[in-house]
Amino acid sequence: MPKPIICIGASFVDELFHAKEEMLLATTNDAVVTKTAGGVSRNIAHQLSLLGVPVQLISVFGDDSDGDWLKQVCTDAGVKLDASITKAGLSGKYTGILNVDGSLFSAFLTNAANHLITPAHLSAHKNLLETASYLLADANINIDTAEWLLAFSKETGIPFVIEPVSVPPAKKFRDVDLHGLYLVTPNEDELPVLCKEKAFFTQQQIEELLNRGIQHIWLHNGKHGSALYSKESSITLHAPVINVVDCTGAGDGSLSGFFLGKYLGKADADCLKLAHTLSAEILQVNGAIATHLTQEKLIQLVTKYYPG
């Protein structure tokens, strides 16, 4: 039986307000609103399941109608929730304000309860975690939970990946001992805040993280592409030129594509191509999930964006 990728972290209702015209401050702006299921770990689990990869999601849901809806969306997509938590009260919500071009103007996060994913909760589900091929946590989880997962990863040999999410949660990991971490996936804003030293150059920041014992750093540079660094090598790949509809979930999709490549046993360079292809497809639809793609269709699309 194939080993699942276990995703640990946020599940939110994404409420996105798409501005019809250029944003104006301190006044009313016309917008179109959409509601989708979100949260970094939830998005990745959902996308992976649609692509035929077995996944478990360890997350927190409210006992309200939004929580019921989020859980139903997950189970309908084939995501298993065997170790997820249902808490009393409201579910988490991400409210995003998007510019006309689909880029993020501002966002609000409310009722997040990721602190309930504790080392004790994970210890109680150790047998499930031991079945994983990879462990993925978003930086919304508490530091002690991330440290427990890293120790578990070292003990079992199961690779552990941290997705920084955004600058505020990424800052938490600046002084954490991350030696042995398989992969961290910052963008250009998140990379500096992960570093202890006041280095101004990207290469210095990468070298610091590698010297702290992180095995791979995957740096996302938006429309300029991404680069995967290790002590032994670096791989860079340009991003496809596309018309962006909605930027939500592009980074989550990129990591989902990378995980799919790993699940299929592909080399790192091919994993990056799958990652960029999936991200490009997500950027061209509303919401954080490319529901129109199967594993076969995604693999075929790689040659559209990266011919030859």
What does this molecule look like?
With 308 residues, the protein is an alpha/beta fold. It has one domain: Ribokinase (UDP-N-acetylmuramoyl-L-alanine:D-glutamate ligase, 3-Layer(aba) Sandwich), CATH 3.40.1190.20. It contains 11 helices and 14 strands. It has an 8-stranded mixed beta sheet, sandwiched between helices. Strands 3-2-7-8 form a 4-stranded mixed beta sheet. Helix 1 crosses helix 9 (250-263), helix 9 packs antiparallel against helix 10 (268-283) and helix 10 (268-283) packs across helix 11. The longest helix is centred in the last third of the chain and has 16 residues, at 268-283. It is globular, with a radius of gyration of 18 Å. The mean pLDDT is 94.
Name the features.
alpha/beta; 8-stranded mixed sheet; 308 residues; UDP-N-acetylmuramoyl-L-alanine:D-glutamate ligase; 11 helices; 4-stranded mixed sheet
Q: Which structural class do you get from the secondary structure elements?
A: alpha/beta
Number of domains: 1
**Assembly state:** single chain
Described by strand count, sense and barrel closure, the largest sheet is: 8 strands, mixed
Please give the CATH class.
Answer: Alpha Beta
Our Rg estimate from Cα atoms comes to 18 Å
Mean pLDDT: 94
Q: From N to C, what is the helix and strand string?
A: EEEHEEHEEEHHEHEHEHHEEEHHH
Low-confidence runs = none
